Amino acid sequence: MKAIIPLAGKGTRLRPHTLSTPKPLLRVGGRPVMSYILDDLQKLGIHEIVFVVGYLREVVQDYIAGEYPDLTSHYVVQEVQDGTAGAIQLAEPYVEEDVLIVFVDTLFDADLSLARALSDDWAGVIWAKEVEDYQRFGVILTDEDGCMTRIVEKPKEPVSKLANIGLYYIRDWQRLFEGIHHVRGSDPGPGGEYFLTDAFQYMVDRGSRIRTAPVGGWYDCGKTETLLETNLHLLETTRGGFAPGASVEESEQNGAVRVETTARVVRSRFGPNVTIESGALVEDAILRDCIVGENAVIRSCDLHDSIIGGDSRLENVTGRVSVGPYTELLVDR
Fold first, then answer.
1. Beta bridge partners of 211
2. What is the DSSP letter of 238?
3. Nearest-angstrom CA–CA distance, 293 and 289
4. What percent of the chain has pLDDT above 70?
5. For residue 134, is pLDDT > 70?
6. What's the rounded Cα separation, in Å, for the pair 196 and 180?
7. Where are the domains of the chain?
8. Is residue 231 within 8 Å of residue 28, measured between CB atoms?
9. Does 93 score more than 90 pLDDT?
10. CA–CA separation, 314 vs 292, rounded Å?
11. Alpha carbons 1 and 332: distance in angstroms, whole number
């Protein structure tokens, strides 16, 4: 089994942070978002991945080469942002077996081993999460056997609450690409985009059985507020605590936090939901619901619901901020 990971988007909802860092490499819980997914794929036994790159692709390639040198990595470039079907079509020359497709805007608690155990009468699996705000998502309609019958984008009526989360296993890869070619030969959807879900509909309409499977959790990393919510989930479950070499002096911790190697916290109150990256200094400050980037300096600040880019310097700042790397925000008192 191979995997396809589309990474070409610009991540505009996370600016200014994505001006210099690709969205999948933004850090949450002290690690890049994409690293959690790559680790899960390796545990599943997947060691060959096609990365669909575009914006800041050299940064992505350097990261994968440095952190995952044992992966067999292929890179295809999506020059035009023409939708998810266009992205996956670019990977076709590398696919000659069943495939896992993972969009990395989110983290998820999903049993990926289902792909290994699926009986032969299924063409694939779409993982889904039941949500109340179904109007925001593409939702999946199923029959009594849990087989997909249709996907409806952002429905106004409550036809289903099963949200499509962007995680798919496709065994019948030949029909998948047949469907993608059919979609690409049709008129595009809104914004001139071609949607992968239309290729799944093509498969189902021609007899393919695609199973829906639940996820235990689904954590959005696509905008500032949800990135902070996901950070909290990670700190409360698997990523909280202090890395070796972290220093906390004369400070008060409240709730789940993460302090990385060589970071220093001095005479401060921090938490809940605060991640302080390597080399950062937090001094005489109050922080809650914050991610502080590598080598940033935070002095005499009272911050909440904030993301501070690496190598930034903030002094005497109060409130909520979102600043990219190499930023100075100094307030006279």
1. 125, 147
2. I
3. 13
4. 100
5. no
6. 7
7. 2-220, 240-330
8. yes
9. yes
10. 11
11. 58
End-to-end alpha-carbon separation of the chain, Å?
60
Nearest alpha-carbon partner for 34 in 85, 68, 72, 69 = 68
Query: For the segment 282-298, what is each residue's pLDDT rounded down to a tens digit?
Result: 999 999 999 999 999 99
On the question of a cis peptide bond just before residue 272, with omega within 30 degrees of 0, the verdict is yes
User: With the C-alpha atoms ordered 144, 176, 219, 68, is the resulting torsion angle positive or negative?
Assistant: positive
Identity at 180, one-letter amino acid code = I
Let me know: does 292 contact 310? Beta carbons within 8 Å.
no
CATH of domain 2-220: 3.90.550.10
Q: Is 133 helix (H, G, I), strand (E, B) or coil?
A: coil
CATH topology of domain 240-330: UDP N-Acetylglucosamine Acyltransferase; domain 1 (2.160.10)
Question: Whole-angstrom Cα distance, residue 37 to residue 106?
Answer: 9
Sign of the C-alpha dihedral computed for residues 240, 242, 244 and 245 taken in this order: positive
- Specify the residue for token string 């350097």: 62
CA pair distance 80, 192, nearest whole angstrom: 10
Q: How far is the C-alpha of 110 from the C-alpha of 213, rounded, in Å?
A: 9
